[in-house]
Amino acid sequence: xxxxxxxxEAMDQKLxxxxxDGWPVPVFIPDIGxxxxxxxxxxxxxxxxxxxxxxxxxQFHKLKCWLLVRSLCDENxxxxxxxDDEDLLKKKSNKIIENLxxxxxxxxxxxxxxxxxxxxx
Length: 121
Known about the structure:
Blueprint: H1 3-9, E1 15-18, E2 27-30, H2 34-46, H3 59-71, H4 86-89, H5 94-107, H6 112-120
Antiparallel strand pairs: 1-2
Helix pairs in contact: 2-3, 3-5
């Protein structure tokens, strides 16, 4: 097998199992792919700056479900949600959404505080 194929077929996105209180099955948090990371960065860049007239402090919070539908998966790495399930996920418990978002963000170093923590280690 060629090196190229070996690399492209390698399962390099490790999964972290998360039991969610109130959900009948666990979910898994992957090491997200580069495409998802770039899309996340793009979404952050689209947010208005704090001093902009159209700044809405809740806009960042709306991105949390955007990220979760694109990252949560089953034990085989298959996405659980479709991209258009975002509004349905927003109806779930805020505590659960916050907890899952924080786990995905920390595992994948998506927020400045996670980058800072990594740099200190």
